[in-house]
Amino acid sequence: MNNAIQMPPKPRINPALVTGLLPFIVVLAAWAMAPLISDIPAYKLPSPAKVWGTFQDMLLNGSLLSEVWASLQRLATGYILGNLIAIPVGLAIALNRAVAETLTPVLSFFQSIAGIAWVPLAIIWFGVGGGSVLFVIVNTIFFSSIYSTVIGVQSIPLVLYRAAQSHGASRWDVITTVVVPGALVQILVGLRTSMAYGWRALVAAEMIAGTNGIGYMTLEAVQWYQTEIVVLGMILIGVLWLTLDRLLFVPIERVTVRRWGLVS
Amino acid sequence: MTNATNDLSKMRRRPMISTAQWRGVLGVASVLFAWQVSVWVIDLPAYFYPAPRDVFAAFIDLTQKGILPEYVADSAVRYSVSVATGLGLGLAFGLLIGLSRFWSRLLGPIINFFYAIVEVAWIPLLVIWIGYGFNTIVIAIAYVVFFPVLYNTLTGVQTVQHVLINAMQTLGATRWQVLVTVIIPSALPNIITGFRVGAGFAFRGLIFAEMIAAGSGIGFLIFDGATTRQTDRVVVGMIMMGVMWLLIDRLLLRPVEQATIVRWGLVRNQGGN
């Protein structure tokens, strides 16, 4: 796994603000004008006003918030559960070279099929609904995180172990002063990556196996050609992800970069 | 690292490699063994928990009927077309935004916004607009590859050493020559990183897109197997997915990565070095 995993560039602010808004205005204008100019049927491209109206309706009758809440709750549960198991287990596996080498190919295999591929099997095992979705999220996050934890420990230079040991460090000292700090950056990168995978898995799993949540809401609307709900769902998925990323990961990144003096 | 320690670690590592591989084989074998034993111990219906033997039989069956080769080929074609498209567009826009402050200001915010709308969210709308099939899948998957390539190209372009550009310009190089001989080569390791990340997300995206919007391919095999309660086929599909990713990784991504590192003499810091 590489370090430079999709970090949007630091925003350059202010003088660019107006220029940056321009494309949004163009897109919105084109969207609003499209039905007037061409003969795209309304079911294919609902007007911005209609999407906005749907947004207001769904906000007022509370259905929107309950879908969002269902999704976020699941994501949080899956994320915490997955990482709580994955990071300690990953560290424990990586401490012993033989165990790590035995399990690395297996973990890498499961990491590569983690997530969406499990949805159909999850439906067979747990039925359609929240249980299947949660299973898929935990599965995705667990394998993504455990893999980056193991890789993180393995990337610690051997010299550091020898240095600590030759100064008389106990096994516990080595763990607390070499292994955990050495793997920390990779673990944090893993936390971020696993969130990105987990978010996609959440939306995808809700689409196929869910009975509520934003993913379910978005795909279900396709069946009824309620394209305004589809578009609303997409915008919501974008806004929620931006919020999550800014709230959770930008601060973490700032702290670790400063604390450990590491820039990836 | 000095040469001495480098040689030392190489000498120490050489015999370790085969041990590591043996251990890896042992790991895979014990998972298969544990799977078979668990089937014997907890007696569940085959549609609920298929045994390795059932899965192997399904694999043979699907191969003999020609279904599996056809699906693998379909997935591979969709994947290559979309990854190539996403790579090309990401590279073009990355260079454009990285080299021009105007384009960066104009397109930066809207690209950040669209990046947040993951490909999974586009698939329902694409199904309404285009319908099921090749085009929907290729657009969605090229979309996944586009962003990591773009962002990493951008980082690469922004971290080019200015001395090099100045040197070229002093020697009378044109803008085009600077781009081709300095900027692109020095951004190449970043571009490759972006390509690698994008290729990983794209493969998962492909499987999902095939579940929703295709009538063939590995994703469809996994999905269809579940709806028809042929769970052995589901597992064949999942294993094929892992094998395909392994092949993509070993035959495409790693050689490309190695070639850039060796060719341009750049070794990237990994983890805690």
TrEMBL record, chain A:
InterPro entries: MetI-like, MetI-like_sf. This is ABC transporter, permease protein. GO terms for biological process: transmembrane transport. It is a multi-pass membrane protein. GO terms for cellular component: plasma membrane. Keywords: Cell membrane, Membrane, Transmembrane, Transmembrane helix, Transport. Residues 68-248 form the ABC transmembrane type-1 domain. CDD domains: TM_PBP2 (cd06261). The chain crosses the membrane at residues 16-37, 76-95, 107-128, 134-160, 172-191, 197-217, 229-249. SUPFAM superfamilies: MetI-like. Belongs to the binding-protein-dependent transport system permease family. Its main location: membrane. It is found in: Cell membrane. It comes from the Bacteria.
TrEMBL record, chain B:
PANTHER family: ABC TRANSPORTER PERMEASE PROTEIN MJ0413-RELATED, ALKANE SULFONATE ABC TRANSPORTER-RELATED, MEMBRANE SUBUNIT. Its main location: membrane. This is ABC transporter, permease protein. GO terms for cellular component: plasma membrane. It is a multi-pass membrane protein. One of its GO terms (biological process) is transmembrane transport. It is found in: Cell membrane. The chain crosses the membrane at residues 20-42, 79-99, 111-131, 137-155, 176-195, 201-222, 234-253. It holds the Pfam family BPD_transp_1. Residues 72-252 form the ABC transmembrane type-1 domain. Keywords: Cell membrane, Membrane, Transmembrane, Transmembrane helix, Transport. It comes from the Bacteria. Belongs to the binding-protein-dependent transport system permease family. The lineage of its organism: Bacteria, Pseudomonadati, Pseudomonadota, Alphaproteobacteria, Rhodobacterales.
